[in-house]
Amino acid sequence: MATSASQTLRTTSFLKTPSLSLSSSSSRQSLSSAFSVALRPSRRFSKPLVVIVKASGSLDAKPTVLVAEKLGEAGLKLLKEFANVDCSYNLSPEELCTKISLCDAIIVRSGTKVSREVFESSGGRLKVVGRAGVGIDNVDLAAATEHGCLVVNAPTANTVAAAEHGIALLAAMARNVAQADASVKAGKWQRNKYVGVSLVGKTLAVMGFGKVGSEVARRAKGLGMHVISHDPYAPADRARAIGVELVSFDQAITTADFISLHMPLTPTTSKILNDDTFAKMKKGVRIVNVARGGVIDEDALVRALDAGIVAQAALDVFTKEPPPADNKLVLHENVTATPHLGASTMEAQEGVAIEIAEAVVGALRGELAATAVNAPMVPAEVLSELKPYVILAEKLGRLAVQLVAGGSGVKTVKVTYASARAPDDLDTRLLRAMITKGIIEPISSVFVNLVNADFTAKQRGLRISEERIVLDGSPESPLDFIQVQIANVESKFASAISESGEIKVEGRVKDGIPHLTRVGSFEVDVSLEGSIILCRQVDQPGMIGTVGSILGEENVNVSFMSVGRIAPRKQAVMAIGVDDQPSKQALKKIGEVSAIEEFVFLKL
Ligand SMILES: NC(=O)C1=CN([C@@H]2O[C@H](COP(=O)(O)OP(=O)(O)OC[C@H]3O[C@@H](n4cnc5c(N)ncnc54)[C@H](O)[C@@H]3O)[C@@H](O)[C@H]2O)C=CC1
Ligand SMILES: O=C(O)C(=O)COP(=O)(O)O
């Protein structure tokens, strides 16, 4: 959180210039061509909900997409219908850093490093990285998230191609196809030298039983192999369904005749095959790698090949691509190497291009990407149900933070979700992100979205804890109410402090519209549209009329009024929904009404 002083300043300036708030529904609507959002607008909520992508330039400017590696024509066509497309291949890291400040999105394959410097050089303009393929180890995800940049990939279109290449390498290696071909081309006829080994009946260990691994397993079964797999996260029933037994890492590598690698490169899988693990393998084991070079300690593999522990290896991927000309592994006579061709079929490249173009265009249009790598992925049906609660969440955050007295410093926020749904049936990540957005944006210049919400909160020292109240009754709607409490702060509207000492606001969705239903200990009911004036007053007849006529005289349209009181003729809180910003004079007049003890104007 910013220092108290700067927080005070920002809160004040927010209140003075509320119409500049990016998240105000009206401003978003009028700037809809300039700002894109993460959720597809529904029929009911035709306004964008979650701003992920902020396109720069003039209101009607098309976004610019940099395509940094060759992409299939069908994908390019889709992109060109929506954006200015700059196809610039083989950029040096410096050239990429220079170009990126002019781009809203970039599309890469495995050959381009989207490093922290790239995000830093973008000056905040880059909002989407599209990886036209699966592996995102060439994208600095932490940096992307910190910069609020969405990363999407194309996780399915090249699965079969990668699996087929794995099988091609497996068979080619077992039968020395590449070596024999080179020998024939060199004018030799070495039939005895290239006697191979059979696949049928051999044990294949598939390391990583995901999309590619399971397709490799299926095909290897068809070749008559005995297939086992190691994958700590794969469901056993999915493996069983295709006749594959999931086993421990050690069991896989010690019993296999062939090992095929299909896990992502992560800190855990980096050099997962190394001197120690090679030492445990069956002598004469054969290894296929179409995953990532980094999952093998390449020097250790050279040693294992030289020692005859590993009889052969077939490698499509390398730690450094392209590998240096003197790479011992590539030059090893028992190694078959291909230049990262796993995804390179005509069909896969067309498919990947379309998949990534759709994802990038969708993200630039403001839809929640189904293949987001660094943001919550919410299934469409869940999303449509949650939409009004998403709006409610942001507005509650926005209201709660405006109730904090200057200089208090917001550090601890508690969110309570009351629902008849089982906790597992309610994904609150989207709601938490929106509450965070609502809390942070009014008091800072930071642009918060689904991607960077948790990071931004953490960076500002804002601790958001979540609690569920499981209600009895029908779980038809996902939530009964959401409560946002800010602890250890003073409030500029003392009545917002609950009995337990926190600023408390609570809201519900009624007929699809978010409502504010509690402030502190007072029950109110005002729809969360436009802005709100909260007044604490001595409960007495005529108050609604008095305040209503002050606003009427100032031509401020009142959309809603509600009074929550402790007991008749005692204190009450009146919540007034207004469409327009009342003038200072109108607010002054309200403050002068003798029965009004305190009041606050809150911009939603
Ligand atoms: N050579 C090429 O051109 C291509 C390479 N790939 C690479 O293949 C790999 C797999 O891709 P997909 O199957 O699409 O991904 P996926 O995400 O569907 O599958 C990866 C699997 O690895 C498992 N895994 C994670 N950590 C593991 C560990 N420590 N030990 C064992 N398993 C572990 C996961 O649970 C998951 O089931 C990726 O690295 C991808 O980049 C994918 C396509 C083409
Ligand atoms: O999709 C993947 O993970 C791949 O490795 C494919 O890489 P490529 O797009 O062919 O550079």
UniProtKB/TrEMBL annotation:
Record keywords, A-Z: Amino-acid biosynthesis, Chloroplast, NAD, Oxidoreductase, Plastid, Serine biosynthesis, Transit peptide
Molecular function terms from GO: NAD binding; phosphoglycerate dehydrogenase activity
InterPro entries (alphabetical): ACT-like_dom_sf, ACT_dom, Ado_hCys_hydrolase_NAD-bd, ASB_dom_sf, D-isomer_2_OHA_DH_cat_dom, D-isomer_DH_CS, D-isomer_DH_CS1, D-isomer_DH_NAD-bd
GO biological process terms, semicolon-separated: L-serine biosynthetic process
Name listed for the protein in its UniProt record: D-3-phosphoglycerate dehydrogenase
Coiled coil: none
Catalytic EC class: oxidoreductase
Native organism taxonomy: Eukaryota, Viridiplantae, Streptophyta, Embryophyta, Tracheophyta
A Pfam family of this chain: 2-Hacid_dh
Catalytic activity: (2R)-3-phosphoglycerate + NAD(+) = 3-phosphooxypyruvate + NADH + H(+)
